[in-house]
Write a structure and sequence with these properties.
The protein is mainly beta. It has 3 helices and 9 strands. The protein has a single domain, classed as Coagulation Factor XIII, Chain A, domain 1, CATH 2.70.50.70. The structure holds 2-acetamido-2-deoxy-beta-D-glucopyranose (2 copies). This is lytic cellulose monooxygenase (C4-dehydrogenating).
Length: about 260
């Protein structure tokens, strides 16, 4: 019974394959938190019973978020569904690294790679916390267009196929956090709507003796951080000659004083 659904989906996919090929993008298939590997949220997960245990919140795999004002921009819900908490929490020491292993990213889906964190209030549990539209997110990493003209997203595609690695700010105060990792694909971003966001969130507990927390001025909301007017949301990759510098959307990277 449970297995019937994926095969139906596969049949439909076959029937629609020219459309789906256009819509096939990518997702994080594995996350390494410190030295522990976790499976990402996979295409079949939605059909499994019981639900597989993940640190990654549910996403509609191979889909994108176009409406930057929708709650879906937060952790990649769908159709206004927002983010559904996952059942596991990874543990990571401050200063240690998390790496996001994407499925082979299409090289034509060029753009920046950005990572944010949000601190879970002390009285809450990350396994049932969703920050709605509160300003809770601070940026810990971003990269856009490099000086040699290549883009951050390109290391996730062929031939490199490198996982994206970010460091938890070394002085970050211990506690539970969401980590929101995203690619913004600019191949149709010459106007808004157009840019395609591919966010996903993992649940972690940060350990260590850090004392730093971001201030209010470092925090943004999702939705809220990006609008049609935010620099880098509308951008033309197809200008003949040298592209103008690319302004990476969102706030500065917060380093916690390091
Ligand atoms: C990324 O995940 C895939 C699928 O599990 C795996 O085959 C591949 O080796 C991983 N890449 C790295 C660098 O760990
Ligand atoms: C945190 O502080 C305690 C007490 O000073 C020390 O034993 C421990 O090694 C420290 N932990 C880290 C990760 O630095």
């Amino acid at each position: 019974m449970i297995r019937l659904l994926p095969s139906l989906v596969a049949l439909t996919a076959l029937a629609l394959s020219p459309i789906l090929q256009v819509a096939a993008h990518g997702y994080v298939q594995e996350v390494t938190v410190g030295s522990t590997k976790y499976t990402g949220y996979l295409p079949d997960d939605a059909y499994e019973c019981p639900q597989p245990k993940r640190i990654m919140r549910k996403i509609p795999v191979n889909w994108l978020v176009e409406d930057l004002a929708s709650i879906d921009i937060q952790c990649h819900g769908r159709s206004g569904g927002g983010s559904a908490p996952a059942s596991l929490v990874g543990t990571i020491a401050s200063g240690d690294t998390v790496s996001f292993n994407w499925t082979q990213w299409p090289n034509g889906h060029t753009g920046p790679v950005l990572t944010y964190m949000a601190r879970v209030p002390d009285e809450e549990d990350v396994r049932d916390w969703a920050p709605e539209k509160e300003k809770v997110w601070f940026k810990i990493d971003h990269a856009g267009k490099y000086e040699d003209g290549t883009w951050a997203s390109e290391s996730l595609g062929l031939p490199k196929l490198k996982p994206w690695t970010v460091r938890i700010p070394p002085n970050l105060k211990a506690g539970q956090y969401l980590i929101r990792h995203e690619i913004l694909a600019l191949h149709v971003a010459t106007k808004y709507p157009g840019v395609q966001a591919y966010p996903s969130c993992i649940q972690v507990k940060v350990t260590g003796n850090g004392t730093a927390l971001p201030e209010d001025k470092d925090l943004v909301s999702f939705p809220g951080a990006y609008t049609a007017e935010t620099p880098g949301i509308v951008y033309n990759l197809y200008i003949i000659g040298e592209l103008p510098p690319y302004p990476i959307p969102g706030p500065e990277v917060w380093t916690g004083g390091n």
